[in-house]
Amino acid sequence: MQVNVSARHGHLSPASQSKIASKVSRLRRYFDRLTALNVTVDLQNSSLPAVEIVASAERFHDLVSHEHSGLLWRSVDGAVQKMEQQLRKHKEKVRDHKHVANTRRS
Length: 106
Prior knowledge:
Blueprint: E1 2-8, H1 14-25, E2 34-42, E3 50-57, E4 60-68, H2 72-95
């Protein structure tokens, strides 16, 4: 799985990029068919940084989560949490736990 971290309208230190990449790479445990995670940090408004995560999965459209907050790490955590919810919901749909199988009686 590829994890790409990029910044828009500013610069992130390598330490920040690696910390963000490690937080986002935890999403793999919620859905193992992820192929790529692209994280974009928008620093245009320095008092309100925005984070966008785009997750690409096999045989499914891209999932997107956005978050903006007063602190960069709170934005990252919020976006990761939103993506976790989307991945859990998608995994439930794929597994179809709510479907009741018809049993054949003889």
